[in-house]
Write the structure tokens for this entry.
Amino acid sequence: MKPKNRSGAAIIVVSAVSLIFCSLGPRAFAQAQPVHQPSAAASGGTVIQLCDGVTSTEVKGLKPGEKMSHDQAVAVSRELMDEWQRKHPGQHWEMAQDNSSQPASVPAGTDTGASASQASGSPAASETTPPKRQQGDTYASFNERDYKLWQAETDKFVAMGNTVFHSGEALGSTIGISCDMCHPNAANTHPETYPKYQVQLQRVALLRDMINWCIENPVKGRTLDPNDPRMRALEAYIIAQRKGAPLAYGKH
Amino acid sequence: MAARYKSVETKCYENRDRVMNALRNCDRRTFLKLSAATAGAVLAKGLIPPHSFQLVEVANAAIEKGSGSVGAQGAAPFRFAYISDSHLYERKLNQRFVRAILKAVDDVNALDPQPDFVFFGGDLAQLGTAGQLELGRQILGNVKAPVKMMVGEHDWFLDMGEKWRELFGPPTYSFDWKGVHCVVLMSVNEKDFWTERKMSPIERMQTVAGLDNGVQSRFEVGEEQRAWLKDDLARVPTTTPIVVFSHSPLYKYYRPWNFWTEDAEEVQAILQPYSKVTVIHGHTHQMLQNQIGNISFYGMLSTAWPWPYAPEGLPPLTIQMNRADPFDQFDACGNGAFTARTDGLVDSIYNLWDRNPVTIKADYLVSGGKTDQPPTPQFASY
């Protein structure tokens, strides 16, 4: 992920800087990270340090804990980037995570060379030659950030399902009943046992058929269209509660 | 009784065929037959008492088979029935739960001989509104035997028990019955979680109403009531059989669902000096039994809906009930009765609607499961 121009670099550095600021970065990786100690503030402001652990600047008037405005942050990161560029003429800044040329599924502990370089950024990377990427295909290019984004999206969807599951109103119940009244934490829903023949429905049932049956009968609402976001979210939530349960379709 | 239960497949197709055939040419005569057929289906499902409540013979037998030795007080055996966890909404919103509690009332009224009293195990209302509580009182007013009430969290947390006290009196009390000392506790107190979150009363109630809602505090009897209990038991000799009625289980089963009493150990310690103690609790909506030291625990069934067994913490002595059939509103619900024996122990009869009744004898619990083991279900929870 090499930034193509200065403003691209600035945005990336802003995020890197704010990572240090919020000290989120080091905690995201499992192994022990080198800790950078910024120098003390000389004029009562806040010292902001680049993740190379060396380049730093002081923002006067910014009290510790205070947030900068977007413009100010861009200006600070531009200043830091310029200084780094001055110190490393002709070199390119590479994002720490980009140094992991192994796919993200490789266990974190195995390659200490690459992992150490993730925290300290480009200077370490320029010293070692990164191993060759696998075929460069889609699945080899997943990295930790991708996984985090996608998991966050999925969890958000599951959380929406959680809300619908627990709300008679969202389900369209006309008698004040919600799914969690019989199924706390989606207990006893057994999504892993579908499809199965359900004689009372006169057909082979999928999970969504049972959900719709429940909505129509004990919940006394209107059945949901399979593409209704509520139905999709309900399925997501119910299945998410059974992570790890072996699939057993047809089990009654 | 075994022949009564056809397979699900058979029943489904028989019903369907009967209705379909009748619909083919629906003249007046056929229409009447059709009505009779559906009425017959209703009858077959045992919705009309006393067919739904087969306990009469079993219960009588239980009294006779009670331990031969005379109890320390020479107490006579007696039987009391229960209805629990009805979770009523007002009629205009929801009649499903109303039908269920009416079924339970019909059941207890059809018992012959009548029980000494009928105990209500808590959660009369679903959201504790005045309308719901009054509906419950009106329905329970049709019970022929005397009714003794206990409060549940669904009755309490809308107005912190104001309406309950107005209708049913103090939530904590004790009484003696034929040599047994009975205590009724309010065991669903919760530490204040609503003030800091600036919840309105209905928000507080809805939070408590969510079984898996982790925001609410865990149930407790509380220091004040434990002191009351100690004081109440001070004048009761340790040989007297004790029955404690409590909504929460008075032991620790599954914390995330509040199948839990936070100060359970303290309460059990107060009961420890007594040789014959039985705790009868609601809240769990399932067949549940436990034995901790000298105390036998029985969970009561709900009329409204059954709950699945918790993923962990299930007492090993529990005789489980099979999973509920979602296509049958009354399955895995019901009511029941208890027999207080001459020896001071208490047997339990679970009157599961649409299923065979199950008797759990105190000997089973007290022996740690070695004697009198009841039949276990075919399908364990998963």
In short: The first strand of chain A starts at residue 46 and ends at 49. Residues 145-240 of chain A form a domain with the Cytochrome Bc1 Complex; Chain D, domain 2 fold (CATH 1.10.760.10). Strands of chain A lie at 46-49, 56-59, 196-198, 203-205. The first helix of chain A runs from residue 6 to 22.
